[in-house]
Amino acid sequence: MLGNEASAEVTLELLGAFELTCCGSSVRASLGAQRLLAFLGLRPDGVHRSAAAEQLWPDYPCHRAAANLRSALCQGRRACCVTLIDCIGQRLRVAPVVRVDVLGRCDAARQIIDGPGLPPSEGEDLIAEFTRELLPGWPDEWLTSDRERWNQMRLYALESLAQQLLTARQYLPALQAALAATAIDPIRETAHRTVIEVHLAEGNVASAVRCYQHYEAYLQQELRVSPSPQMTDLLQGLPYVQGDRHRRQLSAPQQAAAPASDRLRGQAGDSPAPRRGRNAW
Questions:
Q1: pTM of the model
Q2: Integer Cα distance of 226 and 205 in angstroms
Q3: What is the pLDDT of residues 165-210, one digit of tens each?
Q4: Of 25, 108, 119, 228, which is most buried by a Cβ count within 10 Å?
Q5: Taking a C-beta distance cutoff of 8 angstroms, is the pair 19, 9 a contact?
Q6: From CA 249, how far away is CA 129, in angstroms rounded?
Q7: pLDDT class for 253, splitting at 50, 70, 90?
């Protein structure tokens, strides 16, 4: 049995739909076993049994949550021919033979964030992986902080990867990485700046200006704020942006003054001025 466990390859996929595979074959597990495996897979150092029961079944009394945990453990043991969960005293953890996909992606993300530790080709392959969400559709409250950690990790990784690819003049993958980051968090400015930098590096000034204007309009609509000076400095000197901003500044007071003048005329009892002919000055 030990020899089989040592040679078995067990993969727990939590990015996208839950998937448990052993030696290349899919393993069916009950919902309780899936939730327990996912919970422990995101906590490689292990969790106390009582904490696991409380977080997985927060709406149940303590004794009922503990019973649910024992049931999930039994179901997890029957799901596969190898040991998936280690019980060390009162602590539970995923067995070392189980490889959790999100942990491997986080290690790759740290390498990218710390510096150009990965070859550009490997970085390109990771772009698609970083776009995957953590167990989408699962309503469990305990996933909220885990999702936020994964989102921040992949955001920083995609932004760093985009900058590294831009420096290497690999413009298409750099643009793909930056756009993937903007899709995760449309308000975050860092990736939008990289998109503009890529367009400018390729000489696509009109595309850069259009991206700036779309982002500026989005911020105004959502938060009533403007892009940072770091972003506007990228387009410094371009007449498209300066002219558009100048026109908005001129038109705003005129639009606000028209209704006020109409009210003043009405209060003074003035009669409307006669309409001029079509060719009048």
A1: 0.81
A2: 21
A3: 999 999 999 999 999 999 999 999 999 999 999 999 999 999 999 9
A4: 108
A5: no
A6: 44
A7: very low
* Burial of residue 210, with CB atoms counted within 10 A of its CB: 0-12 exposed, 13-18 middle, 19 or more buried: middle
Give the three-class secondary structure for 278: coil
8 Å CB contact between 140 and 23: no
- Cα Rg, the chain, nearest whole Å: 29
One-character DSSP codes across 76-138: HHHH-SS--EEEETTEEEE-TTEEEHHHHHHHHHHHHHHSS-S-HHHHHHHHHHHT--BSTT-
Please report the pLDDT score of residue 241 as a whole number. 61
CA–CA distances in Å: residue 117 to residues 56, 101, 151, 154, 180? 37, 19, 21, 16, 21
* CA gap 71, 56 in Å, rounded: 13
Out of 12-26, 52-66, 91-105, 265-279, least confident range: 265-279
Residue with structure tokens 């039994």? 74
What one-character-per-residue DSSP string does 2-13 give? Answer: HHHHHH--EEEE
Sheet containing 85-88: which strands, arranged edge to edge? 47-48, 91-94, 85-88
Residue 89 predicted with pLDDT over 70: yes
CA 195 to chain centre: 16
